[in-house]
């Protein structure tokens, strides 16, 4: 069931999203060669708790950390460990916050130092996929308009669009209906209605679309070892279109 939010709930979700946006501003300068994934995770957890929030992913279905940190060929759900970033890596950072009972969700892929032109292009196209998907949210549009916006730009660039994972409603829970695939699926295609809060999150591979889950039951990697990028915003559907509730002010 899709939960439409009332103005009070939207205000709560907006505050949760504002804190999450601040977390990314705080983390970005720390994404450097030599930093460990565990260091980034600890920093993030401390930042959230000091400001009265709770890491929404920590303990969710047993996930053991505050951040999903997905380096290079890791698509999503990477578990922070002692691995240290090296120049040329790309790292997907995905996190959610619960603040006063309201949830936010956002992700970004960042370069570690200078990266290859291929990595740069993958990141910029995936980011544009997210921008186009948000622009597709307008009066009368449906979930498939978001899916089509992502899929067409990614495939035009020769990239693989991950099918097994998708965007979703968010706000009162971490994951709510509807599912928002990044390809036009045969599944439900509800209309987008003012008061919906949704997380749109293209996951795009430089190679084929195929992915597999590692033995830790979380880490999703590309089957062919190619790079993958992931961007995500929590968005409010309004009567005129969409408002981004999370943002990157950098
Ligand atoms: Mg999400």
Write structural notes for this entry.
This protein is α+β, with helices and mostly antiparallel strands. It has a single domain (7-244), classed as Creatine Amidinohydrolase (Alpha-Beta Complex). The mean pLDDT is 97. The longest helix is centred in the N-terminal third of the chain and has 21 residues, at 7-27. The strands form four sheets. It has a five-stranded antiparallel β-sheet with strand order 8-7-9-14-15. Strands 1, 2, 4 and 5 form a four-stranded antiparallel β-sheet that branches. It is built from four helices and 15 strands. The N and C termini lie far apart (35 Å). Helix 1 packs across helix 2 (37-50) and helix 3 runs antiparallel to helix 4 (143-156). The structure holds magnesium ion (MG). Magnesium ion is lined by residues 105, 199, 201, 232.
Low-confidence runs of at least 5 consecutive residues: none
Name the average pLDDT.
97
Number of strands: 15
Bound molecules: magnesium ion
- Strands of the widest sheet, in order across it, are 8-7-9-14-15
Number of domains: 1
């Amino acid at each position: 069931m899709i939960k439409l939010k009332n103005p009070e709930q939207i205000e709560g979700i907006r505050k949760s999203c504002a804190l999450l946006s601040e977390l990314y501003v705080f983390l970005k300068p720390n994404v450097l060669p030599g930093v460990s994934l565990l260091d980034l995770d600890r920093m993030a957890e401390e930042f959230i708790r000091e400001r009265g929030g709770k890491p929404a992913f920590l303990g969710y279905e047993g996930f053991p950390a505050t951040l999903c940190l997905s380096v290079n060929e890791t698509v999503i759900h990477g578990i922070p460990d002692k691995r240290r970033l090296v120049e040329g890596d790309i790292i997907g950072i995905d996190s959610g916050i619960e603040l006063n009972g309201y949830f936010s969700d956002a992700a970004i892929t960042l370069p570690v130092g200078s990266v290859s032109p291929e990595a740069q292009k993958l990141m910029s196209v995936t980011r544009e996929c997210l921008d186009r998907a948000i622009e597709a949210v307008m009066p009368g549009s449906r979930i498939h308009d978001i899916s089509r916006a992502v899929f067409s730009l990614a495939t035009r660039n020769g990239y693989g669009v991950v099918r097994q994972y998708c965007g979703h409603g968010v706000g009162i829970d971490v994951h709510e209906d509807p599912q928002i695939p990044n390809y036009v699926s045969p599944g439900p295609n509800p209309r987008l209605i003012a008061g919906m809060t949704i997380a749109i999150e293209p996951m795009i591979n430089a190679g084929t679309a195929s992915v597999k889950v590692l033995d830790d039951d979380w880490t999703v990697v590309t089957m062919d070892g190619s790079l993958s990028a992931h961007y995500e915003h929590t968005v409010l559907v309004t009567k005129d279109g969409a408002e981004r509730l999370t943002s990157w002010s950098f």
